[in-house]
């Protein structure tokens, strides 16, 4: 496989230091940290990517680590544990500033306990509530901290800095705009056709290219297509890797003119969301609902509105696999950040054969959109050309943190609202989530205490405890050994859907109590989490999951929000108040 990359937008970084050997090592190890950060891509849902390399005083790699999924052990903790005493007096290389949003500062604490003297960081954390916090904490404890683009700005670091930006491009876009990082993917013949005149398109690209597309899907929160693609190709849009993360499937259609029989209505593996114009085909909306398909109506259906909506749902990355009409609309709306074009060495011809991008309203070649940071890669017989339609936002200028803003203007506070939303573990109150990386110890059926990696691990396993069936017992063990809360949830939910007979008969009656006892254990074990919970006194806590209408609050407040209600009940208990004075009844 050959690979050529040509930068169309060379950096204007000003050289502040000489390209000495130590700096060359710094650049090498930062690039390694960025490579590590990307290792979980496709196996878990998109999340902030962290990698850590610890180098001993003799310039030997002492330990490495990367964040596998939200709610798992920090990269820095893994690296320090792997290094042992070899890290003392050494240097830590991080692709991104640690984002300790669980209240325990585990990454910073690990670096301090590991005896590191210096930390080199590829970029500051882009999320405002985390930006600069770890850098200040490390410097406060006497560590020498160097940031690429600030303290280290030689041309030598250009590629390393770019690698750090690229591995967290979705997070950067989320911090700088109100849309997820969006990638447009298409395959076309050498003469620029994505199908024959008849509409037949299987297959333009090679099997190697299609396998790479599966990888791109696995790196995305969702895959989006238009109505024409559903009618013409009847796609499945699965990652097809036999396990791991499966992206949500989104269909964007103005008229809702879709077939009743479609692979996307099969919800056994992964869910589908249809976004459409408000009022479109009410009867068909009811049909989709009967299949379990979620329908979201928009007053104005356009790519910008749709992407802002999915940004609010917490999506980081979306892959567009649509036809030319929707692709042109998405490009014109400014929501496409990167393009992957697979070009097959075939010629199909055809006056009416469709092209990958429809009318953009351009009449002169000078109006053409030029890609940035273009890469050329041979994939089997095909050529893959990729590049950015718009540059990543510049993260070098320091955005004041919340603490710094408060110092300037004490009247400014992001937490004045009476409603506190939490969902992803990297949210400001992410530690409230049942997915947060805080192990708990709970008694089993024999009264012996067992350690569970998270509240979610324990909750999912309890669905199958006591069921006299080897499959149920095996499911408990698989959940217990799951590497992340996300995987524990995927195992439990999938088995519940496929084998409902394996779920204990009293589950609906006890699941609230199971969750409450697990949450109480978690907040009792970790004092800093108790402090975070008590700091929300007087505010309504809402779990902002748009998918789970039982534990979450839903898209428009239609959810039951039982997780938020349990936390408020627990807060009242810790404060010595009666739960009835603050929260609704928890009776289902």
From TrEMBL:
Keyword match NADP: yes
Molecular function, one GO term: NADP binding
Alphabetical list of Pfam families matching this protein: NADAR (PF08719), RibD_C (PF01872)
Protein name: 5-amino-6-(5-phosphoribosylamino)uracil reductase
Domain spans labelled CMP/dCMP-type deaminase: 24-134
Any single GO BP term: riboflavin biosynthetic process
SUPFAM superfamilies: Cytidine deaminase-like, Dihydrofolate reductase-like, YbiA-like
